[in-house]
Design goal:
The complex is a heterodimer of chains A (303) and B (293).
Chain A lengths: L22 H33 L22 H8 L2 H32 L5 H12 L7 H10 L7 H8 L4 H12 L4 H8 L4 H12 L1 H17 L2 H6 L8 H10 L8 H21 L1 H11 L6
Helix pairs in contact in A: 1-13, 2-13, 3-6, 3-7, 3-10, 4-7, 10-14, 12-13
Chain B lengths: L1 H27 L16 H9 L3 H29 L7 H13 L2 H11 L6 H8 L14 H10 L3 H12 L3 H9 L4 H29 L3 H6 L14 H9 L9 H29 L7
Helix pairs in contact in B: 3-7, 3-8, 3-10, 4-8, 8-10, 10-13, 12-13
Chain lengths: 303, 293
């Protein structure tokens, strides 16, 4: 956000720079830096490349010993057959709806609460701020059983409501905190001007504040998208019918079907690749916001 | 007045989804509640059963602590080392950073399931690579002793998340300090331990707390990676979270032990509170502050 430094810019410091060394020493250092960089890159990228090659193999080639790095024939049909195993299009739609609504709800209510806490004077303002910050420290697991019982009692078991409604009511204390921080950084002359023009709070919030705070809510939306797309425990608990599952639960059950060795790994790998695409796309389109969001998440790491 | 309108959703949500469940779960912990009949008050019986007769409780404490002890120091050390490494002016450094973020960007379940296959003893990538390097292979997730370390490896693959935070901290260190140190003839090691580390120590302490809290609540990795989904083989990967899940949300046909699971929730919660309190208490000793001359 505004307070966290932009991690994407070029490094400004080189903590390890020693006094200018002899050219030969520098060449050795550069070479060794690249050697280490290559090692790190391979650890990060190898499993993904392997996933790609297996996704393109035919059923008999998956278990070849020794394995080939490149399949000798490409089975693009895996990308058709794999998703069929778990009704991918339907689960994708489920994920999109659940995630979309969670993002809208969570960001909207957090922005509203942040606005009230930062720009409005009312009794109990400080108290509520501390309450929300305090609830950031509360592990989500503490309430999981009574919440489950509550939603079951009001007939929301096996529906998407327990995954969506909480986002519309309170969203996420971290987002409230971030929204408040951002609103505090906006000069007060802006609301004054709008008030003189006769705008009410709702009007100020919608037409003045939302446009100014765009970086804040884009970052929050990306974070909320990540959290919801990654969420596994909640849909696992609440959704009994497999046709209501989001992709996270679908993929986990897909993978666990392979207790032994079945020749269908290629189908799984192809499907998993498709499941990864939306977050990857978001990352490459909005890399800066994504990384700022992750830095902000560092204040409340939930992985 | 307007303030309450803006705050209402958050306040309602906090009351209904945070405050109410908090007290309710404390009450459940003292009952034999099973979700079907009314909760029956049984005092501390759940805790007695946990500490004395439940054969899986102490193993799950052990599994949880093992995960914390392996994961937290490694993720902080590797995260910081990567951040320092990626904070240098080299051609291609931004590509390297992007590659480190990649595992963080991918959906958690997608990476976990992928590693489930990487660790397949016969044809998984892990043993293929070890074979190729002529190193001894491993049973990974299906061995009692290697299962938890394997889970930690999967978690460490996403160390880019920690790296991002340290990178931001490193870039906030004023350049003048480094220049002054260089003029005084300090070597890279001295600079790192006398300037960099003290200045990022507040972030470090925060990360210690958050990583511990994260590790104590590990669920997705052991749930998806253990061969039986219950923390096997044996009890080797049955973390407290998995134990809570298993007791509270068992397979169809078995009775949910909401009371007993709530008691376990509170044990986990208290451990987390102790970790936060202890770190906060000692952080004044570790962290650098301006008035120390």
């Amino acid at each position: 956000m505004t307070t966290s430094p932009d991690v994407t810019r070029a490094p400004t410091t080189a903590p390890t720079t020693a006094p200018p060394a002899k050219p030969r020493g520098r060449a050795v250092r550069t070479a060794s830096w690249y050697a280490v960089a290559l090692l790190i890159s391979s650890v990060m990228i190898l499993p993904i490349l392997w996933m790609l090659t297996v996704a393109l193999k035919g059923p008999s080639a998956v278990f070849e010993v020794p394995p080939r790095l490149l399949p000798h024939e490409f089975h693009f049909k895996n990308f058709i057959d794999g998703p069929k195993v778990i009704h991918f299009p339907r689960l994708l739609l489920n994920s999109v709806v659940i995630t979309g609504l969670s993002v809208i709800g969570g960001v909207m209510t957090s922005m509203m609460a942040g606005y009230a806490l930062a720009r409005l004077r009312f009794p109990g303002r400080k108290v509520w701020f501390y309450v929300f910050v305090g609830s950031m420290l509360l592990p989500p697991v503490v309430g999981i059983i009574p919440l489950f019982q509550l939603f079951k009692d009001i007939g929301w078991y096996d529906t998407w409501l327990p995954l969506i409604v909480p986002a519309f009511l309170g969203g996420n204390p971290l987002f409230i905190f971030l929204a408040r921080q951002y609103f505090l950084s906006i000069p007060h002359s802006i609301d004054e001007a709008a008030k003189v023009d006769g705008a009410g709070h709702v009007r100020i919030f919608v037409s003045v504040m939302l446009p100014i705070t765009k970086p804040a809510w884009i970052t929050m939306s990306i974070l909320a998208f990540q959290m919801s797309w990654n969420d596994y425990l909640n849909p696992l608990i609440y959704l009994y019918s497999s046709e209501k599952w989001p992709l996270s639960v679908g993929m986990a059950s897909f993978a666990s079907q392979f207790a032994g060795q079945t020749p269908d790994w290629n189908l799984y790998m192809a499907t998993n690749l498709l499941y990864m695409l939306p977050p990857l796309a978001v990352f490459f389109v909005a890399q800066r916001y994504f990384i700022q969001g992750l830095s902000a998440l560092g204040t409340v790491n939930q992985r | 007045m307007a303030a309450y309108v803006f705050l209402a959703p958050a306040v309602i949500g906090f009351t209904a989804f945070v405050l109410y469940p908090l007290f309710r779960s404390a009450y459940f912990a003292l009952t034999s509640y099973n979700g079907l009949s009314d909760p029956e008050f049984i005092g501390l019986d759940n805790f007695r059963r946990m500490f004395t007769t439940d054969p899986s409780f102490w193993p799950s404490v052990r599994a949880t602590l093992l995960l914390v002890v392996l994961y937290v120091p490694l993720s902080l050390a590797i995260g910081l080392a990567l951040a320092v490494f990626c904070n240098q002016r080299m051609r291609g450094v931004s590509l390297l950073r992007t590659l480190c973020y990649l595992p963080v960007v991918l959906p958690v379940v997608a990476t976990i399931t992928l590693w489930k296959f990487v660790f397949n003893p016969q044809v998984g990538l892990a043993n293929q690579v070890l074979d190729w390097l002529h190193l001894p292979t491993s049973e990974w997730l299906s061995g009692e002793n290697s299962a938890m370390p394997s889970i930690v490896i999967v978690m460490l693959w996403s160390v880019g998340a920690t790296m991002i935070i340290f990178l931001a901290a490193l870039q906030a260190v004023p350049t003048e300090l480094y220049e002054a140190a260089r003029l005084d003839g300090a070597g890279p090691r001295t600079v790192f331990f006398r300037i960099t580390l003290p200045l990022i120590s507040p972030i470090m302490v925060l990360q210690v707390v958050l990583q511990m809290v994260t590790a104590l609540q590990a669920f997705n990795q052991p749930k998806i990676l253990s061969p039986d989904g219950l923390g096997g083989p044996g009890f080797s990967t049955r973390t407290l979270m998995l134990s809570i899940y298993g007791n509270g949300f068992p397979k169809l046909g078995q009775v949910s032990q909401f009371g007993y699971a709530s008691a376990q929730v509170w044990v986990l919660f208290l451990v987390i509170v102790v970790v936060i309190a202890a770190t906060a208490r000692f952080s004044s000793i570790w962290t650098y502050s301006d008035h120390v001359s």
